[in-house]
Amino acid sequence: MLKDACKRAGLEEKIGTHSMRKTFGYHHYKKFKDVVLLQKIFNHSSPQITLRYIGIGQNQIDYSYSNFIL
Predict the structure, then answer these.
(1) pLDDT means per 10 residues in the chain (70 residues)?
(2) Which of 12, 33, 38, 64 is the most exposed place for a label (fewest CB within 10 A)?
(3) Which DSSP letter does residue 13 get?
(4) Residue 50 is part of which domain span?
(5) What distances in angstroms separate CA 49 from CA 25, 39, 41, 54, 59, one per listed residue?
(6) Number of folded domains in the chain?
């Protein structure tokens, strides 16, 4: 059903339920900034695995540090 909807929308990328899970995780993290909660939701063994899973790399972490102002 999901593949058919993507095809009708003109999307050629491979999109499945796993894509939706990762996208949920990415947006959840961006909104709440709580990697530990997301780690528990995904049942991952560490926050580092969760960040890697949702595509948050070291460059984004470094950028957040460099732009942090109290």
Answers:
(1) 90 88 94 95 96 90 86
(2) 12
(3) S
(4) 2-66
(5) 12, 8, 13, 9, 16
(6) 1
pLDDT of 24 reads 96
CB count within 10 Å of CB 70 equals 2
Torsion region of 68: left, alpha or beta (phi above 0 gives left; psi -120 to 50 gives alpha) = beta
Q: How many angstroms separate the CA atoms of 18 and 1, rounded?
A: 14
CA distance 61 to 14: 28
CA–CA separation, 51 vs 31, rounded Å? Answer: 14
